[in-house]
Amino acid sequence: MVLIKWHGHACFEVIDSRGRSIVFDPHDGTSIGISPPRAKADIVLSSHKHFDHDAVSVVAKPGAKTLVEKEGVFDVNGIRVEGFLTYHDKSMGALRGRNVVYKVEVDGLVLLHLGDLGHVVTEDLLEKLGSIDVLFVPVGGTFTIDAKEAVTVVESIRPRIAIPMHYKISGLRLPISGIEDFLARSKWPVVKVDKSEYEVTKESLPERDQTVVVVLRYR
């Protein structure tokens, strides 16, 4: 079993059955208008070096393992992490730079965090990714894929659970869109969770050929 906690924007914490905390794309809160993440991570994974995704010191425990914009395969405290190069825009990084998406295998589950993905996923990357159980996908546009492109990405990856992120929430000062357009375009069942955390086990996953969109409530 893993416990997924949303700390707003693109910051998610995954706590495994041994209590190990993995935090993706931490922000510092105040610089974007929301609360800082209340997390203490054993592992911190940052997709790229932008202020709203790489506030490692805010969440890292002393001695935490950190990967910032790192491609490759890593064994981090016994957890398999794989980083794949993508881009923050549709121009192979010419506008906003690189973006590394992280695939993490923990407690028998495969999770993929897309960071600030700026383009639809290539066939080459899809082959490398394989089957994904839980996908964290940006939907707010402006700096990432927009709602329409996010639907295309979910269709391509075919996760069993898709969790939207990086969209306008109360207090956020970034000029991005809300979640409404993505949900209107969604072709899958939508489950709205009235809290910022969600438990997932292998047994609780939808069937392999099904996708469910899970929307968490920020704080």
From TrEMBL:
Keywords: Hydrolase. It comes from the Archaea. Pfam families: Lactamase_B_3 (PF13483). InterPro entries: RibonucZ/Hydroxyglut_hydro. GO terms for molecular function: hydrolase activity. SUPFAM superfamilies: Metallo-hydrolase/oxidoreductase (SSF56281). This is Zn-dependent hydrolase. It comes from Fervidicoccus fontis. The lineage of its organism: Archaea, Thermoproteota, Thermoprotei, Fervidicoccales, Fervidicoccaceae.
